[in-house]
Amino acid sequence: MIKRTIKTGVLSFGMSGKLFHSPFIDEHKNFELYAVVERTEKKAHLVYPNIKSYNAIDELISDPDIELVIVNTPNITHFDFAIKALKAQKHVLMEKPFTVNSSEAKILFKEAKKQNCHILPYQNRRYDSDFLSVKSIFNSGELGRLVEFHLRYDRYKKIIGHKTNKETPVPGSGLAYDLGPHLLDAVLSIFGEPLEWRKKLGHFRENTQVDDYAYFHLSYPKDFQVFITTSLLVSEPQPAFIIHGTKGSYIKQRADIQERQLIEGMTPSNPLFGIEEDSKRGVFTSFSDNGLKIQKKITSPKSSYMHVFDDVYNTIREGKPYPVTENEIIMQLKILEG
Asked: pTM of the full predicted structure?
């Protein structure tokens, strides 16, 4: 039996819709980029001539041909739009943050089960090549017993942005909810639930109304410590991943190669897509038995956010477990809540 493609509607054709969703849905053999919501300017058809463009979200959700709805609207709207889509018996792919609190997330997961639908978190950074190189080092055992893990995701944006949903003090705004979900998901996907955690926010830009600095400290069994930092005031990029173990250390710069390539217009089907530059290779450092320092450069694997949509298809059509679990999302949001 041939399984039909999944007709997909995207709720916004802003940056995430243009870069992180539409190109992959369009090229994936098991999906059809069917519709999008464009409230003001109608531009999607210039790239995707056959796409439907709706003026309102309710119109897209009520389209009987759409099977999957991608919620990539402002954070504070995620819950309302997702619950509407679920009640219309659509599967839902949720941008980060999943919701602005764990209580809303629990309601959505419950509603999805009631409607016999799937609500799936879009955590694309699990398929970043830099993160996969870090994961491979953890899994290799070369580090020995883990001592500490530092993660950073920084930018330099001194000027207050024009997006009111990100720069005004509404639920889900601020840097912690913007970049924190990526970093917390990376940790939770490898190490699971921490024994305890704490959060610290900072407000440093002149006239900022939201946090532009966030720090999380997660403690795990056997005294393993995880330190997460994200800031909008880092003018010189720092290593994104620093891992120390009893047998060695691994230091890796953030590559963000896929986002950069997508901004430059490269399509996911390009053979060069997702391949990091050699200059971004991580360095593993250890010492021999006689005290000699040994360093080796680690080439990150080629990767693609297309794998997210492989996962979505495998869950919806094949009934396979989705890699990002309900428990991981609930824990992520509890940590974000503080």
From this structure: 0.95
The 10s digit of each residue's pLDDT in 165-176 is: 789 999 999 999
Chain centroid to CA 297: how far?
26
Cα 253 from Cα 329, distance rounded (Å): 26
Under DSSP, the state recorded for 43 is -
Q: How far apart are CA 171 and CA 80, in angstroms?
A: 13
Domain membership of residue 157 as a residue range: 129-255+269-303
Which residues are paired to 196 by β-bridges?
Answer: 219
User: 116 and 34, same structural domain?
Assistant: yes
- The answer to whether the beta carbons of residues 296 and 284 sit under 8 Å apart is yes
Query: In the block, which residue shows the tokens 């869950």?
Result: 315
Q: Which of 104, 70, 178 has the alpha carbon at shortest distance from 330?
A: 104
Q: CA distances (Å), 51 to each of 38, 47, 64, 111, 125, in order?
A: 11, 9, 15, 29, 27
Tell me how far the alpha carbon of residue 57 is from its chain's centroid: 23
Total tally of structural domains belonging to the chain: 2
- Give burial (CB, 10 Å; 0-12/13-18/19+) of 306: buried
138 and 50 co-located in one domain: no
